[in-house]
Amino acid sequence: MARKCSCSVDIIMVRHGESEWNLKNLFCGWYDADLSESGVQEARTAGEALKKAGFKFDIAYTSVLKRAQNTLLNILDVQGQTDLPIVKTWRLNERHYGALTGLDKLATVEKYGEEQVAIWRRSFDVPPPPMEENHQYYDAITKNPSLLENGPSPDEFPKTESLKLTIERTLPFWNDIVIPKLRAKTRILIVAHGNSLRGIVKHLERISDQDITTYNLPTGIPFKYSLDPNMRPSAPLEYLGEPDVVQAAIDKVANQTKKK
Ligand SMILES: O=C(OP(=O)(O)O)[C@H](O)COP(=O)(O)O
């Protein structure tokens, strides 16, 4: 009888809980907004879901931005692995939202129209206009100590990013760091952002440039991939949450640019 092979390996990813700027409905990108009160609660609920499902990890990866880092710390606090090694990388940062950083999403729709904002927000390869030095948040971003310590080199530092550009700097992390660890059966938790994770999901599920434009990830709900020996998922991502709760959280993100 042929031996059954448990060759698949799981990886868990989470978009951080609601941030103060998600709550205010502002484009955030590389601005270092912290979690809102509900964001902290979402993170703790994510920790409970992981604990209930019995997940244990060997290492966690997160971005250099505090909304992702604090989500991770809250998850680990609840799930019981506060001593887990944590690696921070700018390659998991949210996409840089360029000149849109700090703008209200609905006010931006009113000024530029729904179609233009949809292109900036969800098109695959059209970046928002670049952030110039006179931008209100230029110094807050370029002088953020966390970004100076663990960020990109000055020549890699973006002024804006499309999803395509975001994927181009996230994939080296996936291919060079995550894949070898997964091959060694390391149990990995990644806590990152809406668009850096959309990039990874697009890559794994081979979602087309067109279809990714309507794909949204909810805040604070962990999802799992089981990857085969070729590091390909045999199925779409699986959320650790009730389907109606997941769908409501996805719709909330999709509707951020729609009038109530
Ligand atoms: O910073 C952001 O994402 P994040 O809250 O996942 O870090 C963006 O403002 C998300 O906005 P979007 O969903 O309009 O791309």
UniProtKB/TrEMBL annotation:
It is an enzyme of class 5 (isomerase). It catalyses: (2R)-2-phosphoglycerate = (2R)-3-phosphoglycerate; (2R)-3-phospho-glyceroyl phosphate = (2R)-2,3-bisphosphoglycerate + H(+). Its EC number is 5.4.2.11, 5.4.2.4. Gene3D superfamilies: Phosphoglycerate mutase-like (3.40.50.1240). SUPFAM superfamilies: Phosphoglycerate mutase-like (SSF53254). InterPro entries: His_Pase_superF_clade-1, His_PPase_superfam, PG/BPGM_mutase_AS, Phosphogly_mut1. Substrate binds at residues 15-22, 67, 94-97, 105, 121-122, 194-195. It comes from the Eukaryota. The active site is at H16, E94. GO terms for molecular function: bisphosphoglycerate mutase activity; phosphatase activity; phosphoglycerate mutase activity. The keyword Mitochondrion does not apply. The record marks H193 as: Transition state stabilizer. The keyword Isomerase applies. One of its GO terms (biological process) is glycolytic process. It holds the Pfam family His_Phos_1. Keywords: Glycolysis, Isomerase. HAMAP family: PGAM_GpmA. Belongs to the phosphoglycerate mutase family. BPG-dependent PGAM subfamily. This is Phosphoglycerate mutase. It comes from Cryptolaemus montrouzieri.
